[in-house]
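On to our target:
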Amino acid sequence: MSEHHICSKLCYGLIMLTLLMIFFVGNVAAGEKDASSVDSIIKINPVPKFDSDNIDYTNIAESYFDIIVTLDFVGDKWLVYSDHTIYFAPGFRKPNISTGTLVGIRLNKKGEVVECRRLKTPRPPRKG
């Protein structure tokens, strides 16, 4: 036999031996799991009950918006509430709002409207 032929047979044998060892070690490790390992699994507690209707978003809205009001009038370039007129900042696009809408308003340093979002009318929490 040539030296090259012997080397290739030896490499082939080493590869097969390595694969056999990997297969054997993997099966032995998998077979070692018994009932005691099942007890070590962490139990997951159920998610607590959540009722979004009972969350008071008022504090969150009050900290975000400068003004929260019901609008008395909506013009093309201004809003009126409680006899106060505030103008839209340049480039501000008026949202789809109308008279009587509850809105949250953010103002720039000049006192112009830079954000105006329709807000849901607060309702009392559910009983029982």
User: Anything to note?
Assistant: The chain has two domains: 3-30, 56-118. The chain has three helices and six strands. Residues 56-118 form one domain. Residues 50 and 126 are 13 Å apart (CA to CA).
